[in-house]
């Protein structure tokens, strides 16, 4: 079946850039998403990219998509302590199916 | 707009007890979902409803039932709770005709089964 993989942990220093990586298996994915989950809360959409795009930039966030390798990344520039959270990669196929990765816990060190 | 609301926020059950988790959305979305979140496993889809009056099984439906009461409300029922159902449960909704099809999530229900 479809699968989305992410590393589980990432630590960075405040002010550095963070890069969170994701790989997926479904070649029919239409949209790919990055969600952020803060402690005790639900998931909030950070950004998304349509499968015919290579890159999308939104303020401090840059999403890169390599369709050939089925690799998605999220770069957070000038990472702040408020960016500490769990980040989920998710993909949606032509149907109603969303598949989420296990989440990457980002810790920002002062 | 409240978005997606879930009740209760926390619940402790004994093995064999039953309960219903409630979810409502005020965004007029057609599609609604129930997920469970377990450490290191991300979100797994339990059931979803593409529109009022329809429900379909997701990845992990065993031990659960759902009801799409109307367009706003989608409830999840545990008939006989088991310790393996200890988890955080999230309800979500989406609109099939939006630009991004994104899902909007509720705050979650933290369920412990002893």
Largest interface, and how many residues on either side?
Answer: A-B, 22 and 24 residues
Helix content of chain A: under 10%
Q: Give the ordered list of helices and strands of chain B.
A: EEEEEEEEEEE
Return residue spans of chain A where pLDDT drops below 50 for at least 5 consecutive residues.
none
Notes on the structure:
The complex is a heterodimer of chains A (110) and B (114). With 110 residues, chain A is mainly β. Chain A is 0% helix and 57% strand. Chain A has no helices and eleven strands. In chain A, the strands form two sheets. In chain A, strands 2, 4, 5, 9, 10 and 11 form a six-stranded mixed sheet that branches. Chain A is globular. The N and C termini of chain A lie far apart (40 Å). The mean pLDDT of chain A is 91. Chain B has 114 residues and is mostly beta strands. Chain B has no helices and eleven strands. In chain B, the strands form two sheets. In chain B, strands 2, 4, 5, 6, 9, 10 and 11 form a seven-stranded mixed sheet that branches. The radius of gyration of chain B is 13 Å and the shape is globular. Chain B starts with a strand and ends with a strand. The mean pLDDT of chain B is 93. Chain A binds chain B through residues 4, 8, 30-31, 33, 35, 40-45, 48, 88, 92, 96-98, 100-103, and chain B through 4, 31, 33, 35, 40-45, 48, 50, 90, 92, 96, 100-108.
Q: How is this structure best summarized?
A:
Chain A contains no helices and 11 strands. Chain A is mainly beta.
Please describe the structure with a list of short key phrases separated by commas or semicolons.
heterodimer, A: 110 residues, mainly beta, six-stranded mixed β-sheet, five-stranded antiparallel β-sheet, B: 114 residues, seven-stranded mixed β-sheet, four-stranded antiparallel β-sheet
Secondary structure elements and their pairing?
The complex is a heterodimer of chains A (110) and B (114).
Chain A (H helix, E strand, L loop, with lengths): L3 E3 L2 E5 L4 E7 L6 E7 L5 E8 L4 E4 L2 E6 L4 E6 L8 E8 L5 E3 L3 E6 L1
Parallel strand pairs in A: 2-11
Antiparallel strand pairs in A: 1-3, 3-8, 4-5, 4-9, 6-7, 7-8, 9-10, 9-11
Chain B lengths: L3 E4 L2 E4 L5 E7 L5 E8 L3 E8 L6 E2 L7 E4 L5 E5 L8 E8 L9 E2 L3 E5 L1
Parallel strand pairs in B: 2-11
Antiparallel strand pairs in B: 1-3, 3-8, 4-5, 4-9, 5-6, 7-8, 9-10, 9-11
């Amino acid at each position: 079946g479809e699968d989305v993989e992410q590393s589980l942990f990432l630590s960075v220093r405040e002010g550095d850039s963070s890069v969170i990586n994701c790989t997926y298996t479904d070649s029919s994915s239409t949209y790919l998403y990055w969600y952020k989950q803060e402690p005790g809360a639900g998931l909030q959409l950070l950004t998304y990219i349509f499968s015919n795009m290579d890159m999308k930039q939104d303020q401090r966030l840059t999403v890169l998509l390599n369709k050939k390798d089925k690799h998605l990344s999220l770069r957070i520039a000038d990472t702040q302590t408020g960016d500490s959270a769990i980040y989920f990669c998710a993909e949606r196929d032509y149907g109603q199916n969303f598949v989420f990765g296990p989440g990457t816990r980002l810790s920002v060190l002062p | 707009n409240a978005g997606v609301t879930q009740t209760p926020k926390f619940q402790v059950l004994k093995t064999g007890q039953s309960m219903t988790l409630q979810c409502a959305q005020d965004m007029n979305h057609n599609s609604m979902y129930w997920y469970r979140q377990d450490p290191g496993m991300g979100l797994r889809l339990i059931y979803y409803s593409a529109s009022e009056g329809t429900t379909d099984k997701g990845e992990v439906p065993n031990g659960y039932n759902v009801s799409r009461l109307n367009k706003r409300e989608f409830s999840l029922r545990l008939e006989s709770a088991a310790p393996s159902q200890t988890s955080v449960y999230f309800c979500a909704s989406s609109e099939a005709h939006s630009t991004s099809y994104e899902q909007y999530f509720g705050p979650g229900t933290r369920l412990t089964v002893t």
